[in-house]
Specification:
Layout (H helix, E strand, L loop, with lengths): L3 E10 L2 E11 L4 E5 L6 H9 L6 E6 L2 E2 L10 E4 L11 H11 L4 H15 L14 H13 L5 E5 L7 H18 L2 E6 L2 H7 L2 E6 L2 E6 L1 H6 L4 H6 L6 E7 L5 E3 L5 E3 L12 E6 L4 E3 L7 E10 L3 E8 L4 E8 L9 E6 L4 E5 L9
Parallel strand pairs: 3-8, 3-9, 6-7, 7-8
Antiparallel strand pairs: 1-2, 1-4, 4-5, 9-10, 11-12, 11-14, 12-13, 14-20, 15-19, 16-17, 16-19, 17-18
Helix pairs in contact: 2-3, 2-4, 3-4
Length: 360
Amino acid sequence: MADVSLKNVYKSFGKTEVIHGISCDIKDGEFIVILGPSGCGKSTLLRMVAGLEVITKGDISINGAVVNNLEPAERDIAMVFQNYALYPHMTVFKNMAYGLKIRKMPKAEIKKRVFDAAKILEITELLDRKPRQLSGGQRQRVAMGRCIVREPKIFLFDEPLSNLDAKLRVQMRLEIRKLQENLNITSIYVTHDQIEAMTLGDRMIVMDNGYAVQIGTPLEIYENPATRFVAGFIGSPAMNFLAARLSADGKQVELRGGISFFIQNGDVPNQGGQEIILGIRPEHFILAESKKAMMHLTIDHIEILGADTLVYGHFGEDKTLLTLRLPAVHHFKRNTVLDLIVSSKNLHFFDKESGKRIER
């Protein structure tokens, strides 16, 4: 078991800085997910923890000891990659045992560890097969088994489910989380998939252009995104963003066309009269009686998902676009007008220039 500490970690390739001073303390047994779009630096950060990339500045510590200058083999970590990297000429048993064999571990101990890991992963009957005889999900289990047998202090996962189909990804997500909870091994998991991040992580590090823009639990980040980027990246469909202005007294949010939202007393931003970006999640709109409606949306398109219906439409003279997620199946037609309200507690305010959250 191990805790991991990142202190003001930087990474540069030549004159190009790609990781900008990231700090985070990861507790023993915690499951941390590093989330962000392609090119944001999340895999580079993971590779620095693994020792596969040299740190330009800062410190990475494992159990209180700085490991900046240690080789990957000296850090007692195990890594699962996007491609499974199995030896095609070896059986599953030999693939899982290989790392222990080159460490000259006794054969009896190797056999015990491999069979114990195979039992945990439910691949005991596959031990005599070659990788070409396995499905994608089975190969992923073997790759994980190869890590488990080493009994490392830390698991590192670099987008391990990217090559699997949608149904198998859901199954493997559950398997990875159950495995981590049972073994209680500190784990760091990289993904660009927000659903993986929300369902797997105890906490998330959301990255954008090499910066850790927010660190917190999935629910904290979903309910209180620190920036417009985080708000738009977390949630499906994405949050709606509308140009708006706070009234002079800070008690209303005013949109174009005379539309305004009242902000509950005691829940008022402190910058009256400021131009802002208003964020509203698709699921926070509610159908209302026409006389009570805050806005009237004209439907452009709908997507029926079964339990939910996604509605795409526009409102106002400038035809501002909105996306709604409504419960149950609604058989709306194009050009139908929906009368909508939204609770002020579900409004998010962002600074127009910096994109940072305006606290309420």
